[in-house]
Specification:
With 62 residues, the protein is mostly beta strands. It has 1 helix and 5 strands. The protein binds zinc ion.
Length: 62
């Protein structure tokens, strides 16, 4: 369970494991995708931004 700021509903929400839709470990950085309470797909990672939200823009999704 972790807290993350959603870029869609602009709120910091607690995210539970049941909301996580994907996880990957790339070059030492753990990244997770999850579905926010508002229904938006969001990205969390523990990289250089220390867990800050990186918006899943069209560029990164495509
Ligand atoms: Zn949200």
């Amino acid at each position: 369970m972790f807290a993350n700021h959603c870029t869609a509903c602009d709120q910091t929400m607690l995210i539970f494991p049941s909301q996580v839709t994907g996880m990957a470990r790339i070059e030492g950085v753990t990244a997770m995708t999850y579905t926010c309470w508002c229904g938006s797909e969001q990205l969390w990672h523990d990289g250089l931004t220390a867990g800050a939200t990186e918006p899943a823009t069209a560029a990164t999704v495509a």
